[in-house]
Design a protein that fits this description.
This protein is α/β, with parallel strands linked by helices. It has one domain (about 5-175): Dihydrofolate Reductase, subunit A (3-Layer(aba) Sandwich). About 25% of the residues lie in helices and about 30% in strands. The protein contains four helices and ten strands. The strands form two sheets. The protein has an eight-stranded mixed β-sheet, with helices on both faces. A two-stranded antiparallel sheet has the order 2-8. Keywords: NADP, One-carbon metabolism, Oxidoreductase.
Length: about 180
Amino acid sequence: MSAPLQLALVVAMGENGAIGRDNALLWKLRADMRRFRALTMGHPLIMGRNTWDSIGRPLPDRDTIVLSRNGAFAPEGVLVAHDLAGALELAGTCAARRGVDSAMVVGGAQIYAATLPGAARVHLTLVQDRPEADAFFPGGPEGAWRDNFVETWREAHPAGAEDERPFVFIDLARRQH
């Protein structure tokens, strides 16, 4: 019997909880893109339709599972689920096939809100900025959700030539009760 599927959220947010605007990223952070690739490689990705639209293509060496209520939505190279249970079932099948025990939830706000209660880990990039946005992580970086997690790792990065804002990588694991 295989281990149950674990969910890990991968999110970059501003100090005000901002995660996106007009279906686009808010910052250019090369180090965060490298971390995203390293964390998600070889894992199934669960995302909402707007996040899919912003990426626009399946990412290499990862199974892309898109949650969409649109029954006609069927882009090539993508698995489509019409509800969270269906997405989790697809992710479990993909994870087992790949020999991994987790799926990565990569946005957007509604998908984070739906999966945060069952997430085992959160890989947070906290950007030192408070941009205008139309998409926010539920509760922001210091919301009540943090009470259920313990910080396991932190690494600060200054702004630089490839990273337009300073930021901190923070890994969190769900508290064991």
